[in-house]
Design goal:
Layout: E1 7-9, E2 12-14, H1 16-28, E3 37-48, E4 51-62, H2 71-88, H3 107-118, E5 123-130
Antiparallel strand pairs: 1-2, 3-4, 4-5
Helix pairs in contact: 2-3
Length: 131
């Protein structure tokens, strides 16, 4: 269904992908009053202080309908803005295209998470240790 090469359909030609998009896209449009949510679940397993440690992160965020900001806009935009401020203040020392997990750690991680909380973006962090 994603092929771009046109095929014969009922006496005409169309690319399967174009046909699929023409049929599905109208059903994907938001209706008045619809909003989005962002959901994240991530687990990290490793060893900390000689103990097997599992850290789970959970996020559920909803659109800010009062201000017309989608959840995706909140989660991505606010995170990028906080990161930009951290770079501007010299808090992040790494240079170039660096993933957040490689430059927001230690005290920077604590700062970043507190800034998210100020914007009502809450990430629940659960730590379990064995050993």
């Amino acid at each position: 269904m994603l092929d771009l090469e046109p095929v014969e359909i009922g006496g005409g030609k169309a690319a399967p992908r174009d046909f699929l998009l023409a049929r599905i896209e109208p059903h994907l449009r938001a209706k008045p009053g619809d909003t989005d949510v962002c959901v994240m679940y991530n687990t990290v397993v490793g060893t900390k202080f000689g103990m097997r440690t599992k850290i789970s992160y959970h996020l559920w965020d909803e659109a800010d309908t009062a201000n017309g900001i989608s959840s995706m806009g909140r989660v991505t935009g606010y995170s990028a803005a906080i990161g930009a401020v951290m770079i501007g203040r010299g808090m992040i020392k790494e240079r170039g295209c660096v993933p957040p997990e490689d430059c927001i750690y230690g005290a920077n991680y604590t700062y970043f998470m507190k800034e998210l909380e100020k914007r009502q973006i809450n990430v629940l962090e659960t730590v379990q240790t064995e050993g």
